[in-house]
Structures are given as C-alpha cells and as structure tokens.
Design brief:
Length: about 220
C-alpha cells in the first residue's frame, strides 16, 4: 500500500465541510485525514496555513508523501488508484486541481492521464495536491524565511512558483479531484480581496465527471 497522509485545509466557518470530507477520505482512501484549521477568516490565512503545514511536518508520522486537500473537494471513484499510481511512479508532485482548460491546452501530455505544464506566470487554485514530504518541507522553510519579501503570499501562488523554479514545471492530472459546486467558495464569500487571485471558477476542473463522483454513503 502506498504510504501517504491526507491533510485538509479549512477554517472555523467551514469545519462542517472539512469533517464531511474527512469521512469521505476514510471511505475512499482508507486514511484518517488530519485537519489544518486556520481559525477565523483573515488576510493572513496563507501564513497561518503554512504554519499549520510546518506543525504537521514536525509532529506527524514521516510518510514520504502528503495529499493536501481544500475542504470543498470532490473526487472520482478511481482517485485512490490515481494517487497511488503517481506515488508508485515516483512523481515528486502531482497537481490534481486544474484551474482551466487553458492550463491543459498549454501543457505537454506525458502519458495518460499526466500532463506537464512549464509555461505559466502564476498558477491559481490549490484544491488537491500530492507532494513529496521533503519537497513540501523545503518550500515551507523558504516561505517562513522569505515571505515578508513576496509580492503575493498566497499558498497557491507561492507554492506553484516554488515548484516551477525547483522542478521546471507542474505535473497535472485532470478528472480526479474537483471543487464541490454545492459548497460556496471560501474566496468568494470573503469580505476582502485575495491578492494575486483572479476569478477562475467558470473553468475549474473542466474534465471532471461530476455525475460519477465518489460517494461515501
């Protein structure tokens, strides 16, 4: 069995969704997911989340991979198979949350169902990411040392930029995870603008088959 953990990003107002996703993760992946709660809504949510990542990296079991999910994720019935296949293939990172069809059109298809995106400026939408622990640890260390000098401190922007710089591009797999359309966006419901983000909701997860998403009951 592939050795990895599942961490779910959430905050107080969305704990109900996070706990529901945690239960679904157990039924689909046979894993007890852990929650990273950034507490109240705040402009500092990314900084709080990275501190949460650091805490779990120090405290949790030392699995080689971590699957990081937003609290509003759906997944396909073969999501477990796809995640474990990526691990067995040795990918350092797999970005499952696809912000738009344009991202796939601009990427190189490596194999079914993996793409490699090299040319991008800022990559938005970090709903579902599989990453090697050591790679995540190096990113967290750099973020905590340098974040005060960043133009944007958002996790999705800073992490994707770090991956582009260190790996040369982002590995993508569509049709595996998607934002649950029945759950309001945490960004859209915020009373402050998230720096560096654009509205990509209309094109998110363009190939995901919502009618056949995994159901835990």
């Amino acid at each position: 069995m592939a050795n990895y953990e599942i961490w779910i990003r959430t905050f107080n107002d969305r704990l109900y969704h996070a706990k529901s996703l945690k239960e679904s993760c157990y039924h689909c992946f046979a894993k007890h997911a852990k929650l990273i709660n950034t507490k109240d809504k705040s402009r500092l949510y990314s900084e709080r989340f990275v501190f949460g990542l650091q805490s779990l990296l120090c405290q949790s079991e030392q699995t080689p991979y971590i699957l990081i999910l937003e609290d509003d994720m759906l997944f396909s019935k073969d999501a477990r198979q796809r995640v474990e296949s990526a691990i067995e293939s040795g990918y350092p990172l797999m970005w499952y949350s696809i912000p738009s069809k344009q991202a796939l059109d601009s990427a190189i298809k490596i194999t079914e169902p993996v793409y490699l995106l090299k040319n991008f400026k800022r990559f938005h939408y970090s709903g579902a990411i599989l990453v090697k622990r050591d790679l995540l640890k190096d990113y967290v260390t750099e973020y905590l040392l340098d974040c005060t000098s960043y133009e944007y401190r958002n996790f999705d922007i800073t992490f994707s930029s770090y991956i582009k710089r260190t790996l040369g591009g982002i590995f993508l797999t569509p049709k595996t995870f998607a934002t649950n359309p029945s759950i309001p966006s945490a960004i859209a419901s915020s009373d402050f603008e998230v720096e560096g983000r654009v509205d990509v909701s209309c094109g998110i997860d363009p190939l995901f088959e919502f009618e056949s998403a995994f159901e835990s009951t």
